[in-house]
Amino acid sequence: MNVQMRVRAMTIAVVVCLAPPLFTQAGEDCLVCHEDRSLTMERRGREVSLFVDASLIARSPHADLGCDSCHAGFDAENLPHRGSIEPVNCMDCHGDAAEVHPFHAAMAGATGTDGDPGTSCKECHGTHGVERIDAPGSKFHGPRLVETCGQCHDEVTRHFRQSEHGKAFEAGSAGAPSCLSCHEEALTEARQGEGLASRKLDQEKICLSCHLDDPSVRARMVPDAGFIAAMARLCSLATGGPPTA
Questions:
Q1: Average pLDDT in the 40-54 region?
Q2: Nearest to 187 by CA among 201, 209, 208, 203
Q3: Which residues contact residue 70 at a Cβ distance below 8 angstroms, ignoring those fewer than 6 apart?
Q4: Based on the number of CB atoms within 10 Å of its own CB, is 206 exposed (0-12), middle (13-18) or buried (19 or more)?
Q5: What predicted TM-score, i.e. pTM, was given to this entire model?
Q6: Residue 22's pLDDT is what?
Q7: Cis omega (within 30 of 0) on the bond before 80?
Q8: Which residues pair with 47 in a beta bridge?
Q9: Residue 43 — φ and ψ, nearest 5°?
Q10: CA nearest 234: which of 210, 215, 212?
C-alpha cells in the first residue's frame, strides 16, 4: 500500500474511533476515501484507480444498497482493508441470471464474478454505473441496443444493419425487430442443441410471430409475397385442404 493510502487509512481510523457507538458502514463513509480521484493501489504490478463516482451509483438500481451489500466478505471499518478482497458476485442477488439472459447460452456457466465476455456481468452492465435496461438513454433501450450488442457481435451487427430488418429498426418502423426480438428464443445451435430440422421449425415460428401474427407487419406485406404465399400453401396442406396457388 502506498504512503497516500496509509495516511488516509490512519485518518479514517481516527474518525471511526471517535464516532458514536452506532457507527454504521454507509456509502458516505466509504466515499470519504473513494470519492478522491487520486486514490489508487497497486495490483499485479500496475496502478489501479479506487475512485468511485457517487453520481453513477445514485442513478443506478443499486442506489439504495450499502457498499458492503455487494463488496461482501471483509470488514469495511477495519482500515487499511486487507490486501485480498473477494470479487463482487452478482449472482448472490441475481441467481436467475441464466434464465433472464437466454440469448447468451454461456450464461448457464456464469459464476457471477469475473469471467469471459459471455459470462461476465460487468462486461455488459458495467460496475457502479449499472443502468436500468428499460430506462430511456440506457444502452439497452431503443436504437442503442443494436449498437451495444455490436460491441461484441460486430460482424453480425453489420449484416443486421444492411438487412431489411435492420433498416426498418433504424427507421423506427412499427414491429421492426431488434436483436432480442429473435434471440430471446432458442434459435441457434448453441442455445437449442437439437437437430437442424427442429431448429428451423423454431426459427419459422419466430418469423411468423411477426410476419403473420403482427398486424402492423402483415399490413405492409403484399398478399402474394413469397414468404406468406409459401406459408399459406404449407398451412393448407397441413390441415388437409387443397393446395393454394
A1: 91
A2: 203
A3: 62, 88
A4: middle
A5: 0.68
A6: 30
A7: yes
A8: 42
A9: -135, 125
A10: 212
Nearest to 219 by CA among 230, 227, 208, 211: 211
Mean pLDDT calculated for residue range 233-241:
59
C-alpha cell at 197: 430440422
- The bridge status of strand 40-43 relative to strand 46-49 is antiparallel
Query: If you average pLDDT over residues 3-20, what whole number do you get?
Result: 47
Report CA 164 to chain centroid distance, whole Å: 26
Q: And the C-alpha cell for 42?
A: 497497486
Bigger pLDDT: 22 vs 150: 150
Distance CA 70, CA 92 (A): 9
Helices (H) and strands (E) in the chain, counts: 14, 2
Element spanning 205, H or E: helix 196-211
Whether 110 contacts 98, CB under 8 Å: yes
